[in-house]
Amino acid sequence: MNKRTALSQRLVILWWVCVAAAFGAVTLMYFVLFWKLSFVDMPGNECDSDTCPRGMGWLFLFTPATGLLTVLAWAFVKDAKEEPRRSCLVRLVAVVVALAALWPGWRAYEWMRGPQMYVSGWQMADGSGAAKPLGVWAPPDQGGGLLVRARVDGLVAFDGEGRHGWRLPAPDRAPLCALGRATSAGIGLVVHEEGARGCGARVTAVELTEGRRLWTRETAGQPVAAVGGTAVLAQPDAVLGLDLREGGELWRLPVAADCRVGAVDGAGSGGRHGAGAGAGAAGAGAVGPVVYVEECGGGARSRVVAVDARTGARAWETALPTASPLSELRVLSATPLAVRVKESVPLGTDAVLLFDAGGAIRGQVPAAALEGEPLVTDGLLVSAVKTGKKSGVAAYSLTDGRRAWQRGLGEERVLGLAPAEQPGEVAVVSTDHWWTYLTRLGRDDGGRREEATVLREMPLGSRFTFRPGPPGAYVFVNLDADDELFPTFEVLPVWGW
């Protein structure tokens, strides 16, 4: 045998040794991953096609397949002479190839399981269990990812990394009971309860950068709103406009003796109240009208009134298509104006009414088509919907109420909606009782932007809000009544197991 033939045989043996080593390493990794999914991640150590950890089925196929390829490659090596395959150089090359093969094998596993996220940082609950959460502000004009979480015993701020910032305790014997839906110019309004006077006994303006009380005013009403530089307060006999920073009265509009103000809101707010309002707000610099809803004659007559935020000058008023007391009344969005109205009598109006800039009703979305808290974003009202046993998400135009798109989610139950990290998308959190998912849908067509992301080991309450956080992350805020879960936590893509 000449030297050329001997070298060729050595190269062939080296090739099959490397192939066997590569597939053997991947087989071992897949076996370990399959074991983890089976005995660590699987609910109750048993599953069916709907409850098995994602990627387990692929591993069930690929693990024996790569194992078979390892055996076949090693069969070629065993037939070779002992000396070449036992060479130290061959063994060293085989080890290097085996380690290198783990990277493409791992990438293949990531494809099998699809995108996943896990809890990367959190704040521990204080264990009080008695301080009911009210909501959260996420003021965009503050930057840095500031969150302000409200409980009946006060406000707590969290910075962009989820760490505690300032605290502002509620005054003695005056717990918080409500928040203004949005903030403006870095200022939010909180409503206090006080003894027999109930919720609305006083209102406090809070500067959100440092958590300072700017002013407090004794009141006798509950609905409040921050609109541009104006704090709007509903009183039994009037609607007041106060300077948002100083608290001085700017204007006063009388309310008739047989009327009450049931809701107040306005354009130009700079943040969203995250207690499920799900409404977008205009930027702090775009000051629009204040809108409020009057119920008169015991609810027999109701109307929406729009006034200038700076002067209180009346812009327009529109009668609502109702003829009985309202059991539900909320402003979901101020610009464009969308008002949730539900009469207390059967067959009464039960819809989201849509208004144009002049106050004319231009459409409505029947409440029967909506599930849970809707999200108002980019001229759309996005909501969970249910058809029989199937769930999904639908978007309705705020121009005329027509459905723009609908996306089915099968057996999954929608838990929450928020704008996604990527512009032009909506983030949907859903569950199928075993797993929790985050799905990104296009705002224009409702199309899935990628496979649903599994949210692993989520300490998520029945009531929560969430929003995009640092690049690639989302921030969740729990609002359960017992407040025993993490107040806030962040999820990031899974790079490890």
Descriptive notes:
The chain is of the alpha+beta class and about 500 residues long. It contains four helices and 32 strands. The chain has helices at about 5-40, 55-80, 80-85, 90-115; strands at about 115-120, 135, 145-150, 155-160, 165-170, 175-180, 185-195, 200-205, 210-220, 225, 230-235, 240-245, 250-255, 260-265, 290-295, 300-310, 315-320, 325-335, 335-345, 350-355, 360-365, 370-375, 380-385, 390-395, 405-410, 415-420, 425-430, 435-440, 455, 465-470, 475-480, 490-495. Strands 26-27-28-29-1-32-31-30 form an eight-stranded mixed sheet, with no helix packed on it. It has a four-stranded antiparallel sheet with strand order 2-3-4-5, with no helix packed on it. Strand 12 (about 240-245) and strand 13 (about 250-255) form a beta hairpin. Helix 1 packs antiparallel against helix 2 (about 55-80). It is elongated and about 105 Å long.
- Helix run count: 4
Question: Could you say which overall geometry the principal axes of the C-alpha atoms support?
Answer: elongated
Main-sheet strand order equals 26-27-28-29-1-32-31-30
Backbone CA Rg: 30 Å
Mean pLDDT, to the nearest integer, reads 86
Q: What characterizes the major β-sheet?
A: 8 strands, mixed
Helix content: 10-25%
**Coarse structural class:** alpha+beta
Short précis:
By secondary structure, the chain is α+β, with helices and mostly antiparallel strands. The chain has 4 helices and 32 strands.
